[in-house]
Amino acid sequence: MDAEPHAWESPCSQRYLIDLPPGRVGPPPLEQDAPGWVAANRAVPSGEQFLKLTVQGKGQETVVVKRLTVRMAAKRAPLAWNDYAMGYPGVGCGGGVPTRFFTVALDAARPGVVPEAGHADFPFKVSESDPEVYYIRADASAYDVSWYLELAWSSGDRTGTLTVDDHGRPFRTSGNNGRPAYEFPLGGEKWVKEGTTQ
């Protein structure tokens, strides 16, 4: 199993909250460089977090992925940090359509993993030669939420639960309502207030 906590639904969809002024934040990274950029800036996904979860069996046996469950580690007031948009205004920002697509409303009293309209729900079967990729969009507007997932599986007479998190730490997603928002113009040299570029 492999979890990518900083996958992006499209090049312009992801935003991060950072407790730094724009003059101290480097240009937005490419998606593959996002984990290092996030760590260097102590950034927190803003408004929503997009996870890519790849699940694969081992050996010959088929594994049934029974369900994904959301577990809350903490729920706090949203972060009062600056909001930085990834991608560059004026550049195409289309994204693909994943095959297994789920949403999580982190503001809910009991958040659940819900399939997007038209997408199948658990259970799914995986094997070594037939992995599955699940895309999960978790959104928060009213809280700063630390959370993780539990994946329940079975294979033959064996069952188990795997924790899905950010390399041993909970995922963290914070609401961004009313926060100062910045974007980095294509060809520009610094962050500017969002909406001021043409």
Radius of gyration: 18 Å
Q: Count up the domains.
A: 1
Unreliable stretches:
none
User: What is the string of helix and strand elements?
Assistant: EEHEEEEEEEEEEEEE
* Silhouette: elongated
Structure in words:
- The chain is elongated and about 60 Å long.
- It has one domain.
- It has one helix at 34-41; strands at 2-7, 15-18, 44-45, 48-55, 63-76, 82-85, 101-105, 114-115, 124-126, 132-139, 144-155, 158-164, 171-174, 181-183, 192-193.
- Strand 14 and strand 15 form a beta hairpin.
- It has 198 residues and is mainly beta.
- Strands 1-4-10-7-8 form a 5-stranded mixed β-sheet, with no helix packed on it.
SSE layout and pairings?
Blueprint: E1 2-7, E2 15-18, H1 34-41, E3 44-45, E4 48-55, E5 63-76, E6 82-85, E7 101-105, E8 114-115, E9 124-126, E10 132-139, E11 144-155, E12 158-164, E13 171-174, E14 181-183, E15 192-193
Parallel strand pairs: 6-14, 7-10
Antiparallel strand pairs: 1-4, 2-3, 2-6, 4-10, 5-9, 5-11, 7-8, 11-12, 11-13, 14-15
Short précis:
The protein is mainly beta and 198 residues long. The chain has 1 helix and 15 strands; from the N terminus they run ββαβββββββββββββ.
Task: Throw out a few tags for this protein.
1 helix, 198 residues, single chain, 15 strands, 5-stranded mixed beta sheet
